[in-house]
């Protein structure tokens, strides 16, 4: 399992493929209060990013490896930004 | 006229003003890129607002105008009188039209008739436009690619960037595609934005296996390489080489105001401060309105519906948090950096010091610290006075400094830092300092204190006497800062802002004034209550809720009183007793109770009456009252009466 449910977060670990998206969505639906920790993920499939985007879930942890995850993360933050208090653009 | 129309008129006038200002500066300087962008945005926004109403051809006229500016932006047509003149005419026409619209609610016939003529004017312009062959390709650049280009931090390097818009097929996950991974294989991705190709689906409709993403990116790789990365899915991708920034067209003005400031301008919005104040007021009302939910929950519970009660309480809690963050967010909208005031002093010191025969460096730190606009603006006068004071009397002439083995150049430090919800500003000089004994003698001479009082004061206390009214008189002013205002004026203006000022000085080595000011002035929402025939203010933030209970509900508990609120025993104290007022007697009929939180406990404080609410600025106590426990400060009510603002938490303890 590369998508794991912990007490305080939903964790993505190692290479998270498209086959895991159902599990992730299940957790996202069932645990609206938990943030998603991506610090242990080495690759995250687009479908999982999309799920995080649709559920607008708080993402914690710096992505472990790829520069790409960094870029995706800041793109997501740019979308979520209007929700934050100061509404400033985060690039 | 409806509210929407009123708002439209206000906004449209601002936009008209902005665009005419921009067009004028473009006329003076056709290469002024920033004004071009700004004019485009103003017209674009104006067009959007007009679209909400039916103003005949105005929408088309503005659309045409926007189109022209858009082409000028992309370099397809030149900025010249031929472009600006008709645009100015459009702007003037819109301005006149708005006057009519705000009177009647619709576009007047006289203006409506002119629309067709304006359209004609704008049309001629386009066909006669002097397109530059070099920039011709830019005309084909679609909006999304331009938006991407603008979102990026411009680079100076002369390079071609590729804008990529990738709309993966909705079934692409089934084909084994991983679109973001594909993008990540591209070399040199500079920028990435993600969006959904439609409205966000509800959880029931959401199919995680269908791709709904639109991915936009900018890459520094060559077009060939980018094409290669997408060779299997060319139908899902649009690739646009971005036009180079128009360096050859840049004017000196454009160079002086580089792109980052333009980018910053896009993310800021100028808003009439009255609108923000209105928002703050509404948010403040929400704070109190949300308190109505708690009694509802209790009522639901007493009717036997515990589940409903819990749900109301939980939404009460949620609303409470939201309201609190709303309040914080809107108050933050009034904050501006101290820089606006600080930067005015550099010139002042540079110009004034030589006149006084002194060499002085002003060192400014912490100018990015933010505070309420009113505070930042009103700080100028007192700071000016303090800095002049240091220049005149603090810093010694160069010759004296050398004799005293001090560095020949004097130093004045103007420093700001934030500490909690306060801003601390320090004005520190390395001059001759202030002699407490001399201050003490002067105070006695001026009859501010008696000799015996003076001898009882510490050095620090003595120094603070310089802020007392009447300390500096006209006689001393000539030898002080020569402006006829003493430090008591500075003290008063700082107090008016809800702040305090303190003086520290070591004779021979310098003087430091420390100002402590609230970040925000708008926080003080007061509930005015009556007790023992007097009126007092209590910060609304301290009051959890208010109740009216029959006198019979109060039960004696040992020496005190208490009552039951939602199955909890709440100790009940009487405000007049707490304040030791002579006529402290609990009323015989209904008792009005404020529930306040003291530490973890809820405590009821009975008052005789709850009067109006007031939104004012609380000033800290000074003089003899300073340090009186249980009193936060004083405030002036609309009717001119002074109200003591209580700190219930301190009073109760």
Describe, in plain words, how this protein is organized in 3D.
The complex is a heterodimer of chains A (91) and B (653). Chain A is α/β, with parallel strands linked by helices and 91 residues long. Chain A has one domain (3-83). Chain A has helices at 21-30, 46-55, 67-80; strands at 3-5, 10-16, 36-44, 59-60. In chain A, strand 3 (36-44), helix 2 and strand 4 form a beta-alpha-beta unit. The longest helix of chain A has 14 residues, at 67-80. Chain B has 5 domains: 3-135, Four Helix Bundle (Hemerythrin (Met), subunit A) (Up-down Bundle), CATH 1.20.120.160; 142-241, Alpha-Beta Plaits, CATH 3.30.70; 273-334; 337-518, Heat Shock Protein 90 (2-Layer Sandwich), CATH 3.30.565; 525-652, Beta Barrel (OB fold (Dihydrolipoamide Acetyltransferase, E2P)), CATH 2.40.50.180. Chain B contains 24 helices and 22 strands. In chain B, the strands form 5 sheets. Chain B has a 6-stranded mixed sheet with strand order 14-18-19-17-16-15. Chain B has a 5-stranded mixed sheet with strand order 6-8-9-11-10, with helices on one face. The longest helix of chain B has 27 residues, at 306-332. Chain B is globular. The two termini of chain B are 55 Å apart. The interface between A and B is medium-sized, with 34 and 30 residues.
